[in-house]
Design brief:
The chain has 181 residues and is an all-alpha fold. The chain is built from five helices and no strands. The N and C termini lie far apart (59 Å). 27% of the residues are buried.
Length: 181
């Protein structure tokens, strides 16, 4: 059983590696094209097809298909899909970049609170392969709907706290030093 577990866990490694590569090499493309244009919709397609393809892999009991669909295709979609909300949030909250990024990452983790129990309930009622088909289709629809609301701020926009009313120049933030205490 330990051999089977390590073979299956390799799919997770491929997924994370594919996500890292797609984040690294597609970041500028996603940043340039935005969230609604057709070429950027590939993240939804890759992720949804990756999850649904994992259902196909389980139906055929094919480890190679699992590596391909979950590990590579789904990982690419995950990586590209990760960039879009993070880069958009940072643009809306340039004065709180760390918080905005942290909340986006928290959202990815929070999703497991919903998808985990949903997946468990689906597996017990419709089986493993059908669960992946249903989740993959659901992710496609949810990501499509969510991307319609994900838009960067207008060009040159800054939050009120970063604007100097007199000169329209961004305010310089004060640095807090431990020496001043």
């Amino acid at each position: 059983m330990a051999g089977a577990t390590s073979q299956i866990s390799l799919a997770f490694r491929y997924c994370h590696l594919s996500a890292w590569f797609s984040c690294s090499f597609m970041g500028k493309f996603v940043e340039k094209k935005g969230n609604r244009e057709f070429p950027v919709c590939i993240r939804r397609v890759f992720f949804g097809v990756g999850v649904m393809g994992t259902g196909l892999a389980t139906a055929f009991e094919s480890l190679a298909l699992m590596y391909f669909f979950y590990g590579i295709v789904g990982g690419i979609g995950l990586g590209i899909g990760y960039i879009a909300p993070v880069s958009t949030l940072v643009k809306w909250f340039p004065d709180h970049r760390g918080l905005a990024t942290g909340l986006a990452i928290m959202g990815f983790g929070f999703a497991s609170l919903i998808s985990g129990p949903a997946g468990e309930a689906l597996v017990s009622s419709v089986g493993i392969s059908n669960t992946f088909y249903i989740l993959g289709a659901s992710y496609l629809i949810i990501m499509l709907a969510a991307s319609q609301y994900l838009a960067p701020p207008p060009e040159g926009w800054q939050p009120k706290g970063m604007q100097d009313e007199k000169s329209d120049e961004p305010k310089k933030r004060k640095r807090i030093s431990n020496d001043s205490q």
